[in-house]
Amino acid sequence: MRENHRLEIPNQWDRSGLPAWSFFNSELLQEEKDLLFRRHWQLICHQNDLPEVGDFVTWDLVGERALVIRGRDGQLRAFHNLCRHRGSRVIAKNSGNCRSSIICPFHGWAYNIDGTLRGAAQPSSLPTLDPVKYGLKPLEMDLWNGFVFIRFQSGPQPPVSQMLDGFTQEIKNYDLPNLRSTGRGFWTDEIAANWKCVRDVDNEGYHVPMAHPGLQDLFGKNYHDEPLKNGTSRSLGQFREGAAQLWSVRNYTALLKPKNSLTATQKSSWLYIGIFPNLVIGLYPDSVNFYQEYPVDYNKTIQRGSTYKFADEDRQMRLSRYLSMRIDRLTSQEDEQLITWTWEAALSSAYDGVILSDLEYGVKAYHDALRQHFPVLDGPEPPFQLLKAQNNHLIASRLKPD
User: Fold this and answer.
1) Percent of the chain with pLDDT over 90
2) How far is residue 382's CA from residue 235's CA, in Å, rounded to a whole number?
3) Taking a C-beta distance cutoff of 8 angstroms, is the pair 280, 292 a contact?
4) CA atoms of 57 and 91, how far apart (whole Å)
5) 284 and 298 in contact (C-beta within 8 Å)?
């Protein structure tokens, strides 16, 4: 079981962050996409986003296309969203229902909702096709308390349930398997920065008093982080005593109706569970949410997330959820500015690294996890020197006097 306590920071530790080149090196990015995003678990949805037979969710990331659909037997299945004929996506929408079959919009090949091939268009023009062999290619899938995780290729992580076993007792009162969709679907936001800048901002609460007036008004000094350990991290913000100053926080704490099954601490705190490399699940007294980020390019990142309501939500709890979401939206906007500044710093000629506070030990722990996967991050210079050498030669030639 995961022990919930404040981390004892060692007296001496490496306070330097990642080297600047790691934020804009294209070769490293391709390796990150392969190892971290194709071969690590990615949360795609909750099982109750797909309540009916034929309900589906699709998701594109790092050149891959995923499809999760509920079959006639009630089971969820995950596939590559890839027609076996010419590689078209078989479903173009982000979500919806395919009650009877999946029809590829390119040539009309049909698949059953269990992924088997139903039939090719004009079958006389093709050899006999085995419906299983030529069915949709399955994706590895895992369920944890109703959340659906997929993995495009096998990787180093154990099953999600094993990674998160230490949280079993702490989260049981939230009744996660019975969460309900709010009907808003999944939100996405594009950020002009490297994806690691998003993680660096999110992995520490040192900036909360200065940069997040809403969270500071809600928590005060009652916020602490437990850095990444064995693939997961934990942060807890407990509501401070006394009247809040900001409208959203004041009304949220005054009107909050928490879920009845929660403990006294859970009714007055926000709990965050981080899962390496890019996921956070937030458990609130009034709702549950998740958010994740993934790279498009070295300077372009997508954030994606969703909020879920409790099965027993009434009007007052719905109002509580609206107010907590409002606080979160303002916090996200504030974080985007910090992320942009962090990204810009790595491009500056004056940037020679960082010095981390003890309150940023979570950033160090995350960087250490990255270094385990990419030992080249220990070096101040990238191992890919050809382009740099070419650029230096070009600069030198331009500086030569006529």
Assistant:
1) 88
2) 33
3) yes
4) 9
5) no
DSSP 261: T
- Sketch the domain layout of the chain as residue ranges: 1-39+167-402, 41-154
Predicted TM-score (pTM) of the model is 0.92
For residues 78 and 56, what is the distance between their CA atoms, to the nearest angstrom?
10
**Dihedral angle, C-alpha 298, 159, 171, 310, nearest 10 °:** 70
Which secondary-structure segment (H or E) carries 74? none
| 58/65 Cα distance (integer angstroms) | 7
Q: Let me know: does 204 contact 363? Beta carbons within 8 Å.
A: yes
Range with the lowest mean pLDDT among 7-21, 147-161, 199-213, 270-284?
7-21
CA of residue 117 relative to chain centroid, distance: 32
Let me know if domain 1-39+167-402 sits in CATH 3.40.710.10: no
At the fourth CATH level, which superfamily is domain 41-154? Answer: Rieske [2Fe-2S] iron-sulphur domain (2.102.10.10)
> pLDDT band at residue 3, thresholds of 50, 70 and 90?
very low
- The gap between the terminal CA atoms of the chain, to the nearest Å, is 71
Q: Using CA atoms, how far apart are residues 17 and 164, in angstroms rounded to an integer? A: 27
Task: Let me know the angle formed at the C-alpha of 307 by 305 and 311, rounded to the nearest 5 degrees.
Answer: 150
Measured between alpha carbons, how far is 21 from 346 in angstroms, rounded to an integer? 8
Mean predicted confidence (pLDDT) in 218-235:
95
Asked if pLDDT for residue 45 goes beyond 80, the answer is: yes
Higher confidence at residue 14 or residue 2? 14
**d(C-alpha 74, C-alpha 264), whole Å:** 36
Half-sphere exposure at residue 88, Cβ-oriented, CA atoms within 13 angstroms:
15
Instruction: Please tell me the number of Cα atoms within 13 Å of 397 on its side-chain side.
Output: 6
Which amino acid, 362?
G
Q: Is the dihedral of CA 224, 321, 53, 119 positive or negative?
A: negative
Q: How far apart are CA 84 and CA 71, in angstroms?
A: 20
| Residue 156: closest CA among 372, 326, 357, 335 | 372
Per-residue pLDDT of 323-373, as tens digits, reads 999 999 999 999 999 999 999 999 999 998 899 999 999 999 999 999 999
Q: Tokens standing for 335? A: 């974080």
Instruction: Report residue 207: phi and psi, to 5°.
Output: -85, -5
Report, as an integer, the average pLDDT of 99-121: 95
